Each structure stands twice: as structure tokens, then as C-alpha cells.
Amino acid sequence: MGRRLEFEPSEAIKRAMMVFWQKGYERTSVTDIESGTGVGRKSLYRTFRDKEDLFIAALGNYRRFMAEENLAPLLEATADLTDIDALLSKLTNLGGTLEGSMGCLICNTAVELGKEMPEAARHVERYFGQIRAAMLNALEGAAAKGQIVLTNEELSQEANFLLGVIQSLCVLGRAGSSRETMEDVARCALKRFG
Is 3 within a domain? Predict the structure, then answer.
């Protein structure tokens, strides 16, 4: 009979996610993970093969959390430019804050690891795809309501542009840029739509 787990894996993943988010993959030591989760390495390694396995689980958790927290309104049937504006405002409001200085775990991972860790790269691509799909849905809703007039090809291009804007805001936040700078980026992006 196997040994009973002394911790809740989903809670450990959430806590490890915060450690990786703050420090990045390479700079996070197993000691950091132990401290951040409150779980010893032997117990962690009975559930997760290694640091990379835990990191991949943390990336999956982050994607689910952010999809629920930020992208869900943009995927509603009623989504339009107002929902895009709300997300950009939410991101700009993080400018100059401790939370904003963490950036986006997925974006941070893309910059730090590129394609060096294939499973992490898949999470990056999936998350970018989720953002792109949410932007496209809201833009299609805006077009249906007459807020914008764009062809299907232009709607797709603008969804990609907004993906870039969102990731830019996350990088600017991580770099400690001011809220005013981030607001200018969001404002200029929205001007494209009238």
C-alpha cells in the first residue's frame, strides 16, 4: 500500500505557481519551492517527478486561472469592444504595483525559456491561442453590433495585434513601467477601433 500524501497537490501547485511567477523557472530553487509550498522535497517528489514536472503543472494551473479570471467575459456571446477595453484597463491598473511587477507567468516563460522546454512552449502557444480566440470573439461581437467594420481577415489580424498589446502590457508591468505609460499603450490600441 502506498504512503498517504501529506499535502493537497492542487494547493501545492497553486503555491508553486506563485514562486515560479515571481522568480522564473531557472532562478527558482527546490528550497524556494519547499518554502513557498510548505512541503518538503521528498513529499513533493512522491507526487511530481522533478522541478520541471511541477513547473508544467503550475503553467497549466495559471492558464486555467487566467482564462477564468480575464478571458471568460471576452468569450461570452455578448462580448464586444467594451470587454476588450475592460481587460486592457485591468492590465494598465496593475502598472506600478507589486502584482503588476510579476508580469504574466506565460509571457515570462516564453521570454525565459523560448522553446527549450517543449511542454512549457506548448502551454505558451495554447495560452496565446486562448487570448487570440477571446479577442477574435469580442471583435466579431463588436462587428455584429456595428461598433467596427472589418473583414474576417482584418478581424483575425486585429485579434493577433491585441494579443501583442496584452503581452506588451505584461512585459511593461514586469519592467516596472508607470501606469501612465501602460494607459497610453492601451489607449492607442483602442483608437484603432474608432
Answer: no
CATH number of the domain that residue 15 is part of: 1.10.357.10
Q: What is the SS3 assignment for the chain?
A: CCCCCCCCHHHHHHHHHHHHHHHCCCCCCHHHHHHHHCCCHHHHHHHCCCHHHHHHHHHHHHHHHHHHHHHHHHHCCCCCHHHHHHHHHHHHHCCCCCCHHHCCHHHHHHHHHCCCCHHHHHHHHHHHHHHHHHHHHHHHHHHHCCCCCCCHHHHHHHHHHHHHHHHHHHHHHHCCCCHHHHHHHHHHHHHCCC
In a domain, 1, yes or no: no
Task: Kindly state whether residue 165 falls inside one of the protein's structural domains.
Answer: yes
Answer whether residue 4 is part of any domain. Answer: no
Number of domains in the chain: 1
pLDDT tens string for the chain (194 positions)?
A: 444 457 899 999 999 999 999 999 999 999 999 999 999 989 998 999 999 999 999 999 999 999 999 999 999 999 999 999 999 999 999 888 888 899 999 999 999 999 999 999 999 999 999 999 999 999 999 999 999 999 999 999 999 999 999 999 999 999 999 899 999 999 999 999 98
The parent domain of residue 45 ranges over 9-191
